[in-house]
Fold this sequence. Notes:
Helices cover about 65% and strands about 0% of the residues. It is built from 11 helices and no strands.
Amino acid sequence: MTTSNDDAPNAADAAAGDPPKTVDAAAPDAPAARLVRDALASDKAEAGDAAKAGGSAGTANDSVAADDPVTESDAVAMIVDDSVFDEPSDEARVRAVEVVNERPGFFSSVFGRLAGFSVGLLRTLFLALIMLPFVLAAFLTADLPFRALDRFLPDAAARPSLWFTWGHAFLAATPMLAILFARRFGGEEASKAVTAAWAVAALAAAAELAFLAPTLDAGQFPTTRFVVAFVACGMVSGYAAAATFDILRGGGAWWRAPLYAAMTGYIGGALVYFTAAYWGARAPWVHWTVASTGVYFLFAVAFLPVYGILRRPLRPLGGLGGY
């Protein structure tokens, strides 16, 4: 490879010590320093190969060992005065000078950061809007008994409608959505969507209560304890499901991560809800907690076919594992 004289200005700029050229004089892993060490190591290897073949001792600089620490400022000086590379046309020298000179300007950097932030914000809002209908439905039906399961437990004291409402049924969808979001975008993005969805739902519910307040009696308002328990249950279940899926993704059978993640979310949500809502009460809330875990297990198993169907269209982004 040959190098034209057009590289001379770059080298001169690097030698001048302009602020964009000095990344960190004390950092041994700065771009120019790293490339200089790579070039030294390459020269040393070539010299060894030449010696074995009976040739010359190579072209490496004898004053600097390939494994010696090289700071950024030293590397720039070596690049410019050719103390590392015997021939100005050496490809590594050209690459090193380009790396030192390639630093985005202030406006380019600010624009890039704003663009990245905007994309991330829009993605979070989009995911939150997908989850929001289920969260709002859970809020609106939190006190409506779910009687479809009562036929399986004829004992009046054990009927699920005593503790399981339509709100809990809608709430069961949020960990499933968090798992799907985590599969595609990662657990951090899924957690952001959970937070945004519940924040918007809480504001909407507060606005609705304020609007209906003149027409409601005092006894018709939900208690603060119930609201806190319900919201905490939904948020904890979403966070736990997303985090567990991120930890287990890519290991074992394809169903392992979504099933365990869903169950972790459901169990965590149930513990938070019944403990916060019924601690100290005379109701058999411990029995209800165990029974709700069994119901949520059915939800988790029913979620697996849905997950299996969506595996192909919801492939993980680059850097994220999983089946």
